[in-house]
Specification:
Length: about 375
């Protein structure tokens, strides 16, 4: 029996940051701990958030790494506890928002972090965390309204955690915060959002509302051409609004689950020394996974073509590859720094990833290996 949950408040519009102080007060956050990264601090966005907050934060952690780790989360959690904070404000992309969720979880739960992993049913053990307000500064992950977070564990796995208690109490989505985002990062995060929408549609779980939202997100990003527009002109306010909405919708959609693209991206993203961007990995893997699943979900492929503005019978994989080429996504995994020696480990971890179980057609180790080999060239 499907269980469908869309539970959090989202304040969405240009200039929404001005409402931060009242939103924090309404959630009884009087001593917020801000979680962000060095780029957000250098850009001046952190200062804008602090100004909008109107009170001095209890503490600021501005060193979040891309693909946050369990080790760093433990360090930041100690700072959170020492600060006497009564809530968290996450500012940034998916890494900062996921890191903030992990800090809240570790600060309020006693067991080791790995015991709460979704793959072993640990979500049932996740209770309330400190109130969290999420302020995205990219249009990609949708973590501001997601039940999940992804952390690189000390055991080497890139682990997914999922619980309604990890959803921020408020998502403050201000597209103005994405104006001027560099073209490369706009492309990578935008493809993350589009991949969420497409994979959520294709996963066989039954959740018609989530599926409908996924179609709408794909329509905005691809069908209306908003991703191309945002990459071409970083000051295009209309494109930025629609891409932030597509990102938001992608996360609402993937309560259904995800699939092989994310299984592979999580597995490759755990290679800390490679410093691979999750959205870029999704973009490169997506055409190959779409080819593999062609024929396994025909009705959904038909509707995806419709919302994406493609002709009947058009090759979805080719359409995504054409988009990748148009917005400057690397041609293959080799261009990102991966090589054949990375394949076996990536395949092994993909098979153990939660997203693996959302494929519309079962994927074996050999199937993943072939996709990796093809995507490498």
């Amino acid at each position: 029996m499907p269980v469908m949950t869309f539970l959090t408040q989202c304040v969405f519009d240009a200039g929404a940051l001005k409402q931060l102080a009242s939103l924090a007060k309404a959630r009884a956050i009087t001593r917020p701990f801000i979680v962000t990264d060095a780029g957000i601090k250098a850009s001046g966005i952190l200062a804008r958030v602090e100004d909008a907050l109107g009170v001095a934060p209890a503490g600021v952690f501005a060193e979040t790494t891309s693909n946050p780790t369990e080790t760093q989360t433990r360090q930041a959690t100690a700072l959170y506890k020492a600060s006497g904070a009564d809530g968290i404000i996450a500012v940034g992309g998916g890494s900062s928002m996921d890191h903030a969720k992990a800090i809240g979880l570790m600060a309020s739960h006693a067991e080791p972090l790995e015991t709460y992993a979704a793959i072993i049913g640990g979500g049932k053990k996740i209770g309330k965390i400190p109130p969290l307000i999420a302020i995205p500064t990219t249009a990609g992950t949708g973590s501001e309204v997601s039940v999940g977070m992804v952390i690189i564990m000390e055991n080497g796995r890139k682990e997914t955690f999922a619980s309604p208690n990890l959803i921020p109490v408020v998502a403050l989505c201000d597209p103005d915060l994405t104006l001027g985002l560099p073209a490369g990062l706009t492309a990578a995060t935008g493809m993350d959002a589009l991949t969420h929408c497409i994979e959520a549609v294709l996963t066989p779980a039954i959740n018609p509302p989530a599926e409908g939202i996924g179609y709408d997100g794909a329509y905005r990003a691809f069908g209306q051409g908003m991703l191309k527009r945002a990459v071409k002109d970083g000051s295009d306010a209309e494109a930025r609004w629609h891409m932030m909405m597509a990102s938001y919708e992608g996360a609402l959609a993937f309560v259904k689950g995800l699939g092989g693209v994310h299984a592979l991206s999580h597995a490759a993203g755990r290679l800390e020394q490679k410093k691979l961007h999750h959205g870029t990995l999704n973009a490169v893997f997506l055409p190959h996974i779409l080819r593999f699943h062609d024929g396994a979900a025909d009705a959904k492929y038909v509707r995806l073509r419709q919302v994406m503005g493609l002709k009947a019978g058009a090759d979805l994989a080719d359409a995504i590859q054409d988009l990748n080429d148009a917005i400057g996504i690397p041609k293959n995994l080799s261009a990102m720094g991966l090589d054949a020696a990375d394949g076996p480990g990536i395949v092994d971890y993909a098979l153990k990833d939660l997203a693996h179980f959302g494929n519309p057609r079962t994927m074996s180790a050999d199937d993943y290996a072939k996709v990796f080999e093809t995507a490498l060239k």
